Structure to design on (226 residues):
């Protein structure tokens, strides 16, 4: 297997490139529009063919490169079935598998940050989007976010995975690249709660500013960045 983690400085977004060394087929998770040339260069250097692009949800802080990558490579676009993006070619259901040569990636419906948020599990690699972050969790105050749903997604799904599962989120703002489910259970301050009501109370009082370009980004991302 080939695995690359690419960081976008402006939006603090992590993009992931996964490929099968056997058939040279690749997929990219959460690509950023401004970085398309870098992705294409990386694919060329590794002698890979991009066949699938996944967005974990409709992003508010950057524009996805899904549509542009499709134009360049003829790859398929993938999101969870709850997405409002009508031009997505493949809409996967909860617990459905995405195949990449001999690799299998499990779709997990994990709403809360947004109503269309999905996480993706490949072996012991968890790509959690904005649902579960390193030492944090995704905000729940816009795009049909819901703190109770987020609690259920995190505590009743993601934290049920083996503790050595590697956590790769869509964002990090402090330079962290990877964690584990076990570490997050022990040290993530948002997860040290005794009830769903306590979690809802924390999320209701974050008082975060909305992303500056949220309206523009969301409208573009519903069209996959086209």
């Amino acid at each position: 297997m080939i695995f690359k983690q690419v960081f976008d400085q402006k939006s603090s977004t992590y993009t992931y490139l996964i490929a099968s060394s056997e058939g040279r087929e690749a997929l990219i998770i959460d690509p950023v529009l401004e970085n398309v040339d870098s992705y294409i260069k990386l694919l060329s250097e590794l002698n890979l063919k991009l066949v699938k692009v996944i967005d974990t949800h409709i992003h508010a802080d950057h524009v996805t490169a899904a549509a542009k990558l499709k134009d360049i490579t003829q790859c398929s676009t993938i999101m969870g079935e709850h997405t409002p993006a009508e031009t997505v070619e493949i809409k996967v259901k909860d617990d459905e598998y995405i195949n990449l040569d001999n690799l299998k990636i499990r779709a997990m419906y994990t709403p809360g940050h947004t109503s269309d948020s999905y996480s993706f599990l490949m072996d012991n690699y968890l790509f959690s989007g904005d649902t579960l972050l390193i030492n944090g969790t995704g905000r729940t105050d816009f795009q049909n976010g819901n703190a109770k749903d987020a609690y259920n997604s995190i505590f009743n799904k993601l934290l049920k995975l083996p503790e050595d599962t590697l956590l790769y989120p869509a964002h990090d703002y402090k330079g962290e690249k990877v964690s584990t489910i076990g570490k997050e259970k022990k040290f993530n301050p948002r997860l040290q709660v005794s009830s769903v009501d306590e979690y809802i109370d924390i999320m209701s009082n974050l008082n975060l500013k909305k992303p500056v370009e949220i309206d523009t980004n969301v409208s573009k991302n519903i069209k996959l960045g086209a």
About this structure: The two ends are 31 Å apart (CA to CA). The first helix runs from residue 36 to 45. The chain has one domain: 2-209. Residues 2-209 form a domain with the Metallo-beta-lactamase; Chain A fold (CATH 3.60.15.10).
